[in-house]
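Example record for the data management plan.
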Amino acid sequence: MIRQMVLPFKLEATDDTMTSQVGLVVFGEFLHSLNLAKEIDRMFGKPGSGAGYRASSYVLSLLLMLQGGGRSREDLRMIARDKGLLALLSIDAVPSTDAFGRWLRRMGASGTGVSALESVLDRVLAVLGKKLRKRRKKAGLPPVREVTLDIDASQIVAEKALAQWTYKGEKRYMPLGGHVPELSGMVVHEEFRDGNASPGAEHVPFLTVCLRRLPAGLRIGRFRADSASYQASVINFCRERGIRFVIGADLDVAVREAIRRIPESD
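Corresponding structural encoding:
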């Protein structure tokens, strides 16, 4: 016997634009709260022609694409086709994939793109520092003076001819990033490295830049890293600056022997 189901509401057609990428709306609103588009356009300068796209049109679209799980320029079409997402974030247009390729190559060849992005990052970190102070003041909490720095290398699978083989036997890139959890997990510094670069190479110069890029009034009080940072130079760097640290170490013979010599009372 088939029974008729009566819905408690009426279904109606609508012409409203919708999006299936609601998570990107939240991320996009976060970018707006930082006034990121204005800062990007200010640091990169005006387009070369009146018909050109602003730098923010490229950078914000790339950020949304990567946050949404995209891995190549072709995935930018996922953003360009989502009219609901573009409307909610007040994005007028997304450049074509060909335009993206030309812009990225031009920015990379001239060197202006990297320096402009670093200036934008400095501005974003300053804004996040102010937001952190305001949030704690509103909650009646004392101001933050010390923050935590986490550094780690990320493996990015690549099929490019120039990509190098990693120690895991795969062609990848191995960028190193430094994150501060108290600043919304913001990356304060990064270095794009080839896949065959040693994960433990040049950590002290990297840490030095991380310390320099912190917003005014903040210092690194805690440092966390995996065994790639298990180096005397890194440990000495932290001790000289009064930075407490937690660094992983491979349990080889020397480490096991050092652990064995620790008194039970400790």
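Summary line stored alongside the record: The radius of gyration is 24 Å.
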